[in-house]
Write a structure and sequence with these properties.
The chain is an alpha+beta fold. The protein has helices at 4-18, 26-33, 37-49, 67-90, 98-105, 111-120, 167-175, 209-212, and strands at 53-55, 63-65, 146-147, 156-162, 183-189, 196-200, 203-207, 215-217. Strand 5 and strand 6 form a beta hairpin.
């Protein structure tokens, strides 16, 4: 039996993956959710029948939200990111811990509580990790960020968002001054995938490609 919570987790994951250059596929969805590709395929079949997604053949084929699917996903994402803001801004929880807690909130918030949070928080444009919060009508803010790994040497950039909300990764970038809004100067890049030599307000640092791929800047 497919629960609404389970369905929402898939829609939310596809929504987030679609915003990345690599897009959403069966394999990427499975990796994000920690499940087998066969389980993802079964759920996608149900979502396709419900008119929520379309998909190309194979585990590497693109998975795309339909308009009804995108609307449902945006609602879940909006409540998740508002919850993260509430947990960091009002309850003062560390930003690396709020993702998992917000996953619980997103499924139980009523329309009234969502509206109250929006007002209380002053209509925040983004979550603590820099991701834009969809508007009430489901519309999303366009972002034109790119991975730090693709940036030019000798230029300064502003951190837009972190594509990975894993607690260990967030602690790692915090120590290196790579929070959303921070300025980062690309000092150099060694051949064969790094390391990437950067400078932030916390000093000079070297990042591996895996980390530089998950820090998006403008």
């Amino acid at each position: 039996m497919v629960t609404t919570e389970n369905r929402d987790e898939y829609l939310e994951t596809i929504y987030k993956l679609e915003s990345l250059p690599s897009g959403a596929t069966v394999n990427r969805i499975a990796a994000q959710l920690g499940v087998r590709p066969a389980s993802v395929s079964q759920m996608l079949n149900r979502l396709t029948e419900a008119g929520m997604v379309t998909r190309a053949r194979g585990n590497r084929g693109a998975v795309t939200l339909t308009e009804p699917g995108r609307s449902a996903a945006a609602r879940v994402v909006r409540r998740h990111r508002l919850s993260e803001r509430f947990l960091t801004d009002c309850l003062k929880l560390p930003w690396e811990t709020v993702h998992d807690e917000a996953c619980k909130f997103e499924h139980i918030l009523s329309d009234e509580v969502e509206a109250g949070l929006t007002s209380l928080l002053g209509r925040p444009p983004s979550c603590p990790h820099g991701h834009p919060i969809p508007y009430e009508d489901g519309a999303a803010v366009e972002r034109f960020a790119r991975p730090l790994a693709e940036c030019e040497v000798g230029k300064t950039y502003t951190v837009s968002y972190l594509s990975d909300e894993n607690a260990d990764f967030l602690r790692y970038v915090t120590k290196r001054g790579l929070r959303p809004g921070a300025r980062v100067y690309m000092r150099g890049r060694e051949p064969f995938e790094g390391p990437y030599l950067i400078e932030t307000e916390t000093g000079p640092h070297a990042l591996g490609k895996a980390a530089a791929d998950r820090v998006f800047v403008e």
